[in-house]
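Predicting holo structure, zinc ion bound.
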Amino acid sequence: MASGLGSLVAIWRKFTRITKADGTPIRAHIAEIRTIADRLTRLGDKPSDALIIATLLGSLPKTYHPLIVALDAHPEAGDLDFVIGRIINEAVTLEHFNPDTPSVVSPGNESMALRVDVRKITCHNCGIVGHFASNCQKQPNPYAKPTKPWDATNALAITETAYAL
Ligand SMILES: [Zn+2]
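Done. Tokens:
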């Protein structure tokens, strides 16, 4: 075998210690784990599906913990393709519905792709926090101020979010 025992140990260490970085898309992260598993297989030390699943679940950030708990009790939790499918579904859900990051692109500022924390936006039509007047479900209020998301009331939310990102 061309590769020595040292490199096999190094690859195993990488495999068991891998964690998903914040900016890494989930599919890229899964692909990296599978690539390392393939290298181990080629070196004659194939990790079992159960070990790949354990490594994969252990490498995910806290936001995936509800999924991991659910999978622990699931009869198909030993099926690698099933687990990967569930992780990808969860990633999509977290991306679109994560209550910690409710942000939208500010109307009128699409070209700047300025992200705005909608929790800090006050609607100038109905006065309720959490949406722009342009997205308001209420009847238009003839006494409402002009509805510019970048005006003084909402500028703070936009600026704070921009710096937070
Ligand atoms: Zn409103």
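The pocket of zinc ion is lined by residues 123, 125-126, 128, 131, 133, 136, 138 (CB under 6 Å).
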